[in-house]
Design goal:
It is a single chain. The protein is 26% helix and 21% strand. It has helices at residues 4-11, 43-49, 78-84, 135-145, 201-204, 250-259, 273-276, 305-314, 317-325, 356-365, 383-397, 410-419, 437-441, 458-469, 473-489, and strands at residues 58-63, 92-94, 100-102, 105-110, 116-121, 162-169, 172-177, 211-217, 221-226, 241-246, 264-269, 281-286, 290-295, 330-331, 373-379, 402-408, 425-430, 494-498, 500-505, 509-510, 526-527. Helix 9 (317-325) packs antiparallel against helix 11 (383-397). The protein starts with a helix and ends with a strand.
Amino acid sequence: MPSFFKRALLLLGALAMLAVSLYGCSTGDTQLTPSAGVSDGGSEASAAQSGELPEGNSVTVGIAQDLSNLDPQLAATAGVREVLFNIFEGLVKASPDGSVTPAVASDYEISEDGKTYTFTLREGVTFHSGETVTVEDVVYSLERCAGSENDGTPLVSAFSNVSKIDAPDQSHVVVTLAEPSTEFINALTAPIIPQGSGPTIATDLVGTGPFRFVSYAPQDNLVMEKYGGYWDAARAAKLDQVTFKIIPDVNSLVIGLKGGSLDMVVHLPNTLLAEVEDSFTVHQNTMNIVQALYLNNAVEPFDNELVRQAMYYAIDVDQIIEFVCSGAGVATGTSMYPAQTKYFMPELAENYKQDLDKARELLAQAGYPDGFSMTITAPSNYAQHMDTAQVLIEQLKAVGITAELAPVEWQTWVDDVYRGRNYQSTVCGIAADDMTAREMLVRYMSDNRKNFIAFNDPEYDDVMTRAMTSTDDGEQTQLYKRAQEILNEKAASLWIQDACELTVTDPSLEGFTFYRTYVIDMAAISRK
């Protein structure tokens, strides 16, 4: 890994300002060790090393994000959804290539007008309680997704289009939509849970997946074990037990790998490649997120389009990618990541190449000739986002914008920033609930509950409304692309990159597969 100083010199020419990384990167040529950046006596390091290597057919996976709100139909964050993928299933489930495959349903049909979805339930599917999944369970689950237990507000946004859910017999469920949609099938990955279990599902976690829930200790770990009654022998879990160990500090994750208390780590910054490549199996890919400096469009000065555009011209995205991901991230320019190949528009990343004179001109037009002060809130457990915020702070100084970093714990970020919208700006990554363009773009419609940046644009709302109801694939694709252009033109936020990351496993493990959405498929992993 290049030293911290080398990266700072390469990108910013501001060695004195960035001599110490918040995540303990080496300030010389010494690579990461238990004594470089994190002491052996540190609480996170101790936590990482306190366990012993699991015996037999068990695996411990290091993750940086705590698993708040384990209700599978309410899970707001991708980090929770990727873990619960192993415990819960919908009528269909995600495949690595981005498509969906039948799960609790054995097959399905979509009417020509795109408004009626008919599912045939698979025989012999059981919950982890041993009870057979019934049509009543399925109807209950879908109605709950549509808001039956939430005053009519859908728990899954795509279900706002559902007008009726019927069970004509014990083997079929019919979902009727108010408006046609060719994408709704992707929303049917929403978990099927036992009838009436909504009030307790976040603690009981009874699903139909290849693993059954064992225990959860907040801010510490979640344990699951192989479910012997899984309906698909070919895709049944090969491991007997998996423990997700929550360790927010990236250095401690590496220490855990080297010390043997962790068998696997996900979402490790690829700048740590040199620390792990010689002793472990390393899988490198982008994160399938859109990282950005997200701006609260409802507060000054970010309610001014000229200010947002000026900020975009002030930053250098290529430098950020080089610093944070050693050049391996992919610039986005809007809210779409490269795995969404059908909709991804790499050309939009070219529209705001750094131009400091243009940035100053726009700031003056907006009434801020001397710049302004601002705060960037970032989740402290994600090294990539913290490092990105540090680079942004240095780059914005060049046009008179003074930014201060406010690191917060993950749950604080979820509560205050994402849900509470009590922030000015934040660096984070947004992922799709499924592989549709809709899920990456609908969140910026003015009335969408996930619109945490408070973006409001009538043309955008109109384009998205037409896109979501179009049954013509070519027309729909062009409308989704126009929606991305609007986000870029308005500089609704400063879209940066799909960051690069590593999944690192002990050499004794095999079978890890990247998905095109947020998934950690532990059923595919086995010991050699």
